[in-house]
Every structure is written in C-alpha cells, then in structure tokens.
C-alpha cells in the first residue's frame, strides 16, 4: 500500500513507457494507505490546478477529490453519452454540478481522482485524447510534477463589512402574498421561495476552508466543493439526497417539513415530536412524496415508500420519507430529468411553480437547489445542493429557501430561512458579531 507521495511516484513511472501517438483512453489506478491525517480536501486545495471537486457522502463512507479536467461536459446527459462509449470501464467517473435547471451543468472527467470507499482508497490517473495519447501523457506528467503536499486549510478569521438580503423582508412578504393568491386561484399547490444573502468581508474567503469548517460541525450532511478557479467556488453541506443508483437499484427521498433544532437533546426531541404530528409540515412532505412517485413511475418498477423519520441537524430538523425502486434501465440522465427540481426545492405543479420562481424571485438560482455528485457506469449519486454558498473573492452569497403552502405565514417562513442559513452563516460571522 502507498502514501500519496508514493502513489504519485508510481503513477509517474507508468507514464515513462512510450504511449501511442493516436486517440484513446488509458486509466492507471494505484492503492492508497489511509492515515489519521489523510484529508483529501486539504490535498486538493493545496494545488494550483482547476477545476477542483470534492464530495463526501452523508454517512461518511464515500469520499472523492477530483483535480484537473481531461474533458468538460455542459450537462449530465453529455457526460453519460461519453461514458456509454466505454461500457467495459469500471474506473471512469464524471463529477461536478447540475444547475437548478437540470439541462445545464459543469461536470468533468478528472485528470487525477482520489477516492475512498469505507477504509479502502485509491488514486487514479486518466489519459484521454481525440488525437494523441502521447501528447496527453506529457500534459499529465507536467501536472504530476507540479503537485504539492497537503497543507492545513486556513481558519475562518473574517471581518464582516456589510450584508444584503435579496429579497429583503418587505419584498419577501409580497412574494408570499403573491404565492397565496396563486394558491387561491388554483394555479399552484406549493412553491419554494429562496433568499440570497450577500456578505462582504475585509479579506478573500477560502472556499475550501469554509467547507472544512462546515464539515466539522454540520454532521449527517453531504459536503461538496467545486472550485472553478482560484477566486470562485461553490460549496455546501446538504442534508438531502437527490438519488443514489447502484446498478439498477435507486434510492431517493422526500425531505420537506422543518422545525428548529437544539443542542439540548430533550428540547430537540420535543421539537421533532411536534414536527412529526404537525399537519402543515406533514402535508408539505406528502406533496413531495406523491410528486416523486409520479415522476419515477415511467422509469421505475414497484415503488416502496418508507415510514417518516426525523432528520436532526445542527440548526434545523426535517421530515424525511425514503423512496426506493428498481430502474428499468440504468439511465442517470433520465433520473435527473425526472427528479430535479423536486417539489421540495421548486413546488407543485413543477411547471407552474418553476415559472413563478423564474418570474418573481429577484436573483438567479444557478447552482443553488441543483445537485452535486458523480456518475459512472456502475453507480451514481447526487445530493441536492442546499445549505450552499457561492464564494467569489471577498464576497459570499448564502442561499436558503422555504416551502410555501396554503396557510404559510411570512414571518414564520422568514425565521425558517434564517435557521437554515445559520448552518453556514454562523461559521463566517461568529467572530465578527
């Protein structure tokens, strides 16, 4: 077994042999030894190569870090079409982000991929060229030679200069009144409205350092990080799975209905018990369940809906119902089209709710409420990109949303999005306020 340094050296040795001056794809994988200080995010953020992508499964069993792009894909369907050319390859993996509009994304086949599954880890180098593998091998050698060792990520020692919310409170009230009027006219059953909070700091913010701080405290979440360049990155710690596929077995979930959480176990339990029996929240969750089941019917076999659970997080608690099925064929592009955006992030009916969002929300969602994850021939998994933030130099844009249904109260929903945003906001501002 190898340390990262030894593994990289072994990969460099594999590139010494002559490579064909023709098109093709080659994959080299070497195992890694994990130690207590093995941190893929630290290793990734130490490099001056982009894009960078980090993703950790909610239960912590799976983790990947991708560095550099051999090929870029503007949508998941384009990435899936690429993988279809290599039906026998088990080691090709495409990772990245899908926008709120699932037709658009930023995904890539990585040059170098660090992967961990439970206690087993490996480092994979990918060569791919439409013209010359020999030339692509030279580029891979240059990247390997320039890699740096992992280093500790910077602490978030930030000074907040100003903050702006979009929409601000008066416009938020108006939006909910517009939504309630739409419900009364029978145009929608539910719409999810979001708020963007822009925070400016006196110094640039490290997107990787921000995620590392969130990863330490926001447990039971997917953690993801996409660095587009040295200044811009999108990060998040999301509680919600969009879908997981193993072969043709698919698991998804309805995560809708929210109440505050507490560090006090007894108080958190009382709040969770209230959530489990609250009519408004149960109704909101079942709307999402019914929508997911309808959308899976064309691509899945018998559906199994599990009993409701309480998902307890640091700042909030959610109602969750898991939904399992067997796909008729392993088609991840179809899964994305059918499931995103879910009623938990857009509303019902999907078309009417999405149109309301597009026409009335005063900002573009872009990556917010899209999805982050990976696809391969054998398996795929994406989380919904909630509890997320866009980092751009010294500015951070935080996102949070609330499901609006008949009977929703603007002040109560404002408190809900404050609670949701607090999971990340507190990490940026607790020393400033």
TrEMBL record:
Q: Chorismate-utilising enzyme C-terminal domain: from which residue to which, for each copy?
A: 171-420
Name the Gene Ontology molecular function terms of this record: isochorismate synthase activity; magnesium ion binding
Q: Which principal EC class is assigned to this enzyme?
A: isomerase
Which cofactors, by name?
Answer: Mg(2+)
Q: Which GO terms describe its biological process?
A: menaquinone biosynthetic process
Keywords on this record? Isomerase, Magnesium, Menaquinone biosynthesis, Metal-binding
Residues binding Mg(2+) are: 284, 416
Q: Where is the active site?
A: 190 (proton acceptor), 240 (proton donor)
Instruction: Spell out the family assignment given in the record's similarity comment.
Output: Belongs to the isochorismate synthase family.
Q: What is this protein called?
A: Isochorismate synthase MenF
List the source organism. Answer: Shimwellia blattae (strain ATCC 29907 / DSM 4481 / JCM 1650 / NBRC 105725 / CDC 9005-74) (Escherichia blattae)
Its gene?
menF
């Amino acid at each position: 077994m190898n340390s990262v340094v030894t593994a990289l050296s072994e990969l460099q040795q594999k590139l010494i042999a002559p490579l064909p001056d023709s098109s093709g794809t080659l994959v080299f994988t070497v195992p890694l030894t994990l130690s207590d200080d093995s941190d893929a995010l630290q290793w990734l953020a130490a490099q001056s190569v982009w894009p960078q992508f980090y993703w950790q499964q909610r239960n912590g069993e799976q983790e990947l870090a991708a560095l550099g792009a051999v090929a870029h894909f503007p949508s998941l369907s384009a990435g899936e079409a690429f993988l279809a050319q290599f039906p026998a390859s088990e080691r090709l993996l495409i990772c990245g982000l899908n926008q709120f509009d699932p037709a658009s994304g930023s995904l890539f086949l990585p040059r170098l991929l660090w992967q961990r599954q439970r206690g087993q880890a490996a480092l994979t180098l990918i060569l791919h060229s439409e013209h010359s593998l020999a030339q692509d091998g030279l580029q891979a050698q240059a990247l390997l030679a320039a890699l740096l060792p992992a280093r500790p990520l910077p602490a978030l020692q930030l000074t907040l200069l100003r903050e702006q919310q979009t929409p601000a409170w008066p416009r938020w009230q108006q939006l909910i009144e517009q939504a309630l009027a739409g419900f009364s006219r029978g145009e929608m059953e539910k719409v999810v409205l979001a708020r963007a909070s822009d925070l400016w700091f006196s110094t640039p913010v490290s997107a990787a350092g921000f995620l590392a701080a969130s990863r330490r405290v926001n447990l039971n979440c997917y953690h993801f990080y996409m660095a587009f360049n040295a200044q811009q990155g999108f990060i998040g710690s999301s509680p919600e799975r969009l879908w997981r596929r193993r072969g043709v077995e698919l698991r998804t979930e309805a995560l809708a209905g929210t109440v505050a959480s507490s560090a006090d176990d007894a108080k958190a339990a009382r709040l969770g018990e209230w959530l489990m029996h609250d009519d408004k929240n149960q109704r909101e969750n079942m709307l999402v369940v019914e929508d997911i089941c309808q959308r899976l019917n064309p691509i899945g076999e018998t559906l199994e809906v599990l009993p409701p659970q309480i998902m307890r997080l640091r700042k909030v608690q959610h109602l969750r119902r898991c939904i399992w099925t067997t796909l008729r064929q392993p088609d991840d592009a179809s899964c994305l089209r059918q499931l995103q955006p879910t009623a938990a992030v857009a509303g019902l009916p999907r078309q009417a709710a999405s149109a309301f969002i597009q026409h009335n929300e005063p900002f573009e969602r872009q990556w917010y409420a899209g999805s982050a994850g990976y696809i391969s021939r054998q398996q795929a998994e994406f989380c919904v990109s909630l509890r997320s933030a866009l980092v751009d130099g010294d500015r951070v844009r935080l996102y949070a949303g609330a499901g609006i249904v008949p009977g929703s109260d603007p002040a109560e929903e404002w408190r809900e999005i404050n609670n949701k945003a607090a999971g990340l906001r507190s990490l940026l501002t607790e020393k400033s306020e």
